[in-house]
Amino acid sequence: MTGETLASVRCLIVIPCLNEAEHIGPLIDKLGGALEALDSMLVVVDGGSTDGTREIVREIASENPKVHLLDNPRRIQSAAVNLAVATFGAQYDYLIRIDAHGQYPDDYCQVLVDEATATGADSVVVAMQTIGFGAFQKATAFAQNSKLGNGGARHRVGATSHWADHGHHALMRIAAFQAVGGYDEAFSHNEDAELDYRLNRAQYRIWMTAKTSMIYYPRASAGPLFRQYFAYGRGRARNVLKHRAWPSLRQVIPLSVMPVTAGALLAIINWAAVIPVGFWALACLGYGFWMAIGQRNAYGPLAAISAMVMHFAWSAGFWRELFDFRGRRMAAYGANAGVTP
Predict the structure, then answer these.
(1) Buried b (16+ CB within 10 A) or exposed e, 28-50
(2) How far does Cα 194 stand from its chain's mean position?
(3) DSSP secondary structure code for residue 182 in this structure
(4) CB 3.0–4.6 Å: which of 80, 168, 307, 316 could bond 258 by disulfide?
(5) pTM score of the predicted model
(6) Please, which residues have CB within 8 angstroms of residue 156's CB and are 6 or more apart in sequence?
(7) Could you read off the pLDDT of 95-138 as tens digits, one per residue?
(8) Helix residue ranges, H only, the chain
């Protein structure tokens, strides 16, 4: 696509954020080329930052009329994007979603627009590569970039360009986004997969491009990583409950981790109860050592530990949400029946 044609494409670039003072300035600078090349506006939708993020954005906006700051009282990303589209979407053709804690090529937005116009896709998604700096973060990145941590998801490992059911959200036609109702704000996590389910059901087309990608920085310690994946598990369960969209085989295997771990408590009755959880742990550690040898990466064994944290947290979050929902239904039934559940 020529520069003149690019300049005619109207794009709303949205950055949901909360306390990203360290990253927001350089990120907006990185997107400067897109603001020049496209007929675009960049909106930072802030969930109530207290670290100076808002002041940085206001200062940039005072010098660049294409940059705006919007308040997000609900704080979560799904609400941030919905708010930006509701406020400014009527003026634009495409929505481009940018993660505040990611890193992007200089021509990221331009390539997305090129791919959307060339394919006629309603949504363009990308692969996500994970990198880290400290020991635990590097190990987690190694895990998340491998089948041990991502189960072979194409938007994690990368693939040739193809029509897809899901991927890391990058660009979306605003008309398609609005037609299916935008993000479901009941989802604080997994809102992208839930929206992709509705896009597919409404016969909108999702294109995964191999021509660009983004870099993501994982959590730097076990506690935040556990909480993140616990929330992901809850989000996946909500998707099941809402759409009866049952997990794929690659997701069913880690779903079993929490039940078999809990079942190991029965070892006081029969020692064989520890076999399933022991097999899982040995399989993860073995895969980690295999990665260390095969890829000459010393972080393999620690990557196995990170993967085990992710597996258990995701499984625990899923089952917690599932049983919590059943508990709410039973309580509601009891109240309607006039009995105590």
Answers:
(1) bebbeebbebbebbbbbbbbebe
(2) 11
(3) S
(4) 316
(5) 0.84
(6) 127, 128, 130, 144, 145, 149, 150
(7) 999 999 889 999 999 999 999 999 999 999 998 888 888 999 99
(8) 3-6, 21-30, 32-37, 53-63, 77-88, 108-119, 135-144, 147-150, 154-157, 174-179, 191-201, 222-243, 249-255, 257-263, 275-294, 300-337
